Amino acid sequence: MNLDEYKYKDLIHRCFRCGYCKFPTHWDDVTNCPSYARFRMESYSNGGRLWLIYAWLTGEIPWSEHLTQILYTCTSCKSCVEKCPLSFNEDIVNMTVAAKAAMVEMGRLPNLVKKFFQNVQLYGNPYGIDAQKRSDWMNGMPVESYGGQEYLYYVGCEGAYDTRAQKAARATAQLLIDGGVSFGVLGNEELCDGNEVDMMGEEALLENLATRNIQQFSDLGVKNIITLSPHAYNVFKNKYPEFGGHFNVYHSTQIFADLVKAGRLSLPDKSGARITFHDPCFLGRWNDEYTAPRKVIKAVKGADFIEMDRSKKGALCCGGGGGNFYTDFLGGSEESPARIRVREARDAKADILAVACPNCLTMLEDAAKAEGLDDQLKVMDIAEIFCQV
Amino acid sequence: MYKLNFNEEMCFACKTQDCLVRCQHLDIDQNTARAEMEKIINGEDSFVLHDCVTCYACEEYCPHGNHPFYLIVQRQDELGISPLPEPLVKRGIQTGIPFRGEPEISEIKGTALNMGVFSNLMDHVQGKLFEGLPIMSHDPRKMFHYFCQLMYLHYGKTSLINERLVNILETIAAHKATELIQFHDECYGTYTSYAPAFGIEVPFKSIHLFDYLYHKLLELKDDIKPLNFKVAYQRPCSSRLSPDMHPYVGKIFDLIGVEQVKREYVDENALCCGATILGQKKEGSRRYCVEIQKKNIEDMKKAGAEICVFNCPACMQTLGMPVSKNGIMPLFMSDLCRLAIGEKIA
Amino acid sequence: MSSILNALMDIVGEDYASDRYEELFTYSKDLGTSEPQWPEYVVAPKRVEEVQKIVYLANKEKVAIVPLGGGLTLAGLALPLKGGIIIDMKRMDQIIEVNEQARYIVVEGGISHGAITAYLHKQHPHLMHSEPGAPPAATVAGNIAIHGQGDLAHPYGFNTDMINGLEVVLPTGEIARFGSCAVGSGWYTMHPLPDLGFFLGWNGTTGIITKVSLRLFPYKKIREMDVFSVIDEELVPEILYELSHLGLSEDLITTSAAIPPMMNRIHNTSIIIAGDYEEEIEFKRHMIFDVTLAKYIHSGVGGIGAVSMERARPTISKSADWKKGGGFEYVGSIMPVSSYPECYRRGAEISEKHDIPYTVLGRVIGCCHAMMFSWFYAFNRADPETVRHAREALHETDEMVMEINGTIWKPAVFGQKLMMDRMDRTTLQLMKKVKDLLDPNGIMNPGNWEVK
Ligand SMILES: Cc1cc2nc3c(=O)[nH]c(=O)nc-3n(C[C@H](O)[C@H](O)[C@H](O)COP(=O)(O)OP(=O)(O)OC[C@H]3O[C@@H](n4cnc5c(N)ncnc54)[C@H](O)[C@@H]3O)c2cc1C
Ligand code: SF4
Ligand code: SF4
Q1: B3, C64, C445, C448: which has the highest count of C-beta atoms within 10 A?
Q2: C312 exposed, middle or buried (CB, 10 Å; 0-12, 13-18, 19+)?
Q3: pLDDT digit string (tens) for A273-293?
Q4: Domain covering C222-314, topology
């Protein structure tokens, strides 16, 4: 890859490295880029990364393992876009994604990233678990296979395979049943949605997944999709149209908000609880949905809803995006973003940290354990606050 | 050179001198008005040329459709009398200079919406009301190529308007649209009042935004849910150039079910937003500006307005914040209409 | 792995020391026109003891150390001219104390100005500090190491005039405190102890600033920017003089720029006023425009350019993109306010010569005691020719500043030399003695303020 072939060749050198992009909405601190928060070296800040990419593309510095690592610690959380004052700010995350794509093309990637892609290719999920186990999450639940119901409930890889996220997938299914929503699932036929693959720069694999998913959805006559994960929500909504897939896509919290409003859910009583909410990047910054999850949480009886210092557009990413929930490049430290985040929830005196994303759920729950906070701070998917199955 | 088509005979024969007698800002009786108009017509100095706050209203007050305001500005220009201090004039003149490349000319068939110099307000022309309308001047970097220039009436500079309008008209004409809905009624005034008054040919037809909105709302009548707000309307100076379009304000309000509050500064007695008065040379201008803004807002408040509806972005910029500090929500007319058909606004 | 890297990792932990190419590359450049200067190591300490150990190590190994904050001076002042270790100070970002009543805040040196402002807004809404117009990632220590100025420059002077106490790790590794904190009496004053002011404005060549007590000032609820415009640059000094006599504004900044055209050859003075009540604000506007500046307005030579504009955090970074190339650098100077007209004219000439649209800015410091006058030169990072032009323009401007009896602010090495060439010999020798005394091994940011 050289600069001429790079999509942002006319833009990338225009980053001034001024560092506005390090800040959240209310300028609390320079640590809102999860990658920079973790490593605190300029090379891991967005500006540093863009300068490195430019130097690499122009041949000023060579490719290296460490360079790929720096790229892949970017979680595509889009926080940097919010404060960059320059006219091209909308593209600054895409610049890194495009550089990852260039590395994919060269085939020179960190092993864990390679493994991620291989697993998705071979098994349809990043964990490398048998596709025949995909429907295990719903064992014993009265969930129908999709066949013309109003909605397809798309569970996604984490919800299907991760033991912790499975509980969120089940709670979500149960709430949909309780709310009288007509829906079905794909079971073992479900395939990775491709959002992470996209953010990790594997364009061909994304195309492959998208085409196959679209084919399957269309063959089954799917029109409306409910996703458990904001990641799937994002790619279905914003990327699939490019491959000819046009569906009405909803995140589960958007459906719950409607159900709550229509009085179709029984509201749990959590008297005395203090609930805070961690905005998932792919629901919030990528899709501007900040109200639906809050409406649902605020419907919980007897609980106080509190915001953390950094919320909504300024929320700190849990560090799981861009495949990092799997590669864990940001893990292993007190300054891992998820651990910073649970400390923030603790500082807000929350006893429930509500999430709306299976990635955030696993990242933050592990972090709470690592911080020794698991006794005082429960990490729960919003659906789980309503029902646990 | 373009010449103002001003009927002097008609003016000498006028029985009211309404142009100056009704001026809200200068206290002038009929005799004085007649004498001063005579001086102005004859190209002589008059205190009116110095004290005029350039609110455009006399253009509407003249019962004969003569052009007293254009005449005043032309004389200011000829005699070198500027209502504004030099730095503001220089800045104003330079503001209109395009500096970020040439516009891309794409051919437009039929009708388009012309944003003029407000390309960054595209958020206010979204949704069903504007669906399918080609937009002219949507790129803020190029917007000065579509700047109608009428602002310079506040600067005592008809010559500059006339000089620059030629290029602007050429740029617009190059798109080949036959009909333009003018986002800003200053553009509308330029092409339907000012240009004809100076004998400048305009190669397209203009439609006033409110005219357009009204008819579009009629088409979408089934979607309208009455809003039941109490609203005040901030009438901009340029609307004085198209008084025949002013009734659309009331018609739109009726259609979308909002009540226009009864107040003093309304219709022909509307008060200017003050933006241009603020910086004028005449002693006490700033204080006067503050005073009329206060009167205006107090009047809206007293009448119980919940929303102040704006037509002009400059009025919005000047009064938007002060009205909202007074508990009245500022809204563009287009946004109010969008609310009425159940759309969300930015 | 080298023994120095090992030692650094022992001090700060593995994650926070590096000698990898990518880190070294990143720290070899700053945002301006300086040529890259490569460090050998980068380290990011969290605690003062860690800083101390790094300094001991550097002395032992005779390797240079360069403290770095936001790295935003543009003038290459934190580039390792002689290699060595970059100490990225930004993990030292704690707020230690705020004394609301005595109006001061004690912070660690690596905290960003943005973070202080955000914290005060939330926790002490009646207090503010003087934030520089730099990007908010600029650090407190970095800013005082170059005598910065900020939002409250007009009433209170340089940011270094607003310091109540300091903690410094000396070049030999000892920790020293200055001000009342040195006698254990808290952080509320720098005086009346004997003055040992060897650290402010020294570009980190005499020690590493680890704690700072900053004076805070009343933060009023309403704040707005009003603008007064003139064409004749000769009027600017007297207008600023009169406004400073009136004394109602928080900040006075005059700017002029070729782009956008509306600014071209016009001098716009931003007048920042604040008040807790609308009446207070209107009273200030009245005194400023209807009384103090009225004569300029009536005679037509001055005009109210704007009132009640929002006072937002400046984003001068945007000027980096005028050449669509993400770069600019400026020469700053400290000048008498009376030099404004000449500064502007000479700057516009230099800009024109190098085909760069001119941009100049003068900020009043103190009660018109001086002004920080700056000339901005944009360049396209991807086009070496424009970088060369900007660099030449900067050097010519440095020389011009000297020629018109100004003082270069935060000079790059080129400007430092011009100043030292002209400096009183005794002063220069004293600088050298101080430096030799404090830093016998010459390890602290060598190449800066270096007396030969
Ligand atoms: C767009 C823009 C606008 C600007 N506007 C202003 C302005 O309005 N006012 C203003 O004052 N400045 C301004 N600056 C200049 C500069 O960014 C600031 O002064 C900034 O505060 C410098 O701090 P820093 O943390 O970036 O310092 P750095 O660049 O990191 O360091 C500056 C110097 O201090 C030394 N240093 C850093 N940390 C320490 C420490 N802990 N102990 C000892 N020495 C140390 C460094 O070695 C270097 O020599 C501006 C810069 C830009 C890019
Ligand atoms: S991405 Fe934007 S905010 Fe971040 S360093 Fe670059 S120019 Fe500055
Ligand atoms: S997208 Fe998130 S992780 Fe990536 S550079 Fe921006 S702020 Fe950092």
Answers
A1: C445
A2: exposed
A3: 999 999 999 999 999 999 999
A4: Alpha-Beta Plaits (3.30.70)
